[in-house]
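Box 3.1 A note on notation
Throughout this textbook, protein chains are presented in two layers. The first layer is the amino acid sequence; the second is a token string describing backbone geometry. Keep the layers aligned when reading.
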Amino acid sequence: MERLARELGGLPPSLGPVRLIGIDGHAGSGKSTFAGHLAAALGGAPVLHLDDVATHEELFDWPERLRAQVLEPLAAGRPAHWAPYDWVERRFGPERVLEPAPVLLVEGVGAGRRLLRPHLARLLWMETPRAQSWGRGRHRDGRELSDFWDGWERAELAHFSDDPSRPFADTLVRQSGTGYEWTSGAPGTTGRATSVTERNGLPRA
């Protein structure tokens, strides 16, 4: 993981002074866990969770809010001021400040969508099959959220049908019994070369 962190930290800035790294994949694919490990390897890099940007009514219709609150300020080298969504209270919470750090991880379904791709220094895709990912998510959230998951699955299918991320991924990340391994994504999709397969000896997330 430290080698990947050094590689990402050495990339040219992609959003003002920030190296914006996208971590995308199906819901339940392990994006948040992987982002946490990677952030630690980067010395505590900030992580923007797209679950905090989406809402019940706007599962994927949040691009303009993200652009205005986060992308434009960081592109200008200014702190971003944004309010995370509270999924229990069903409203936006207190405002937070996101400084233009050298590396910023943005993780969530849609982190590689067409709005974000021009601003990414690297796009990572969690290579966990859709059915397995959704099964994990349903098990994690319990039966009380089964109706939500029914709606989410339809929305995610529609989103990736219209705006797929995986074909544009620089790096495909897989979980194994000993941690993670990653391989190059489709060549030439974003104009950046990627590493050969690497392994990280973390416990399975």
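The radius of gyration is 16 Å. The first strand starts at residue 19 and ends at 24.
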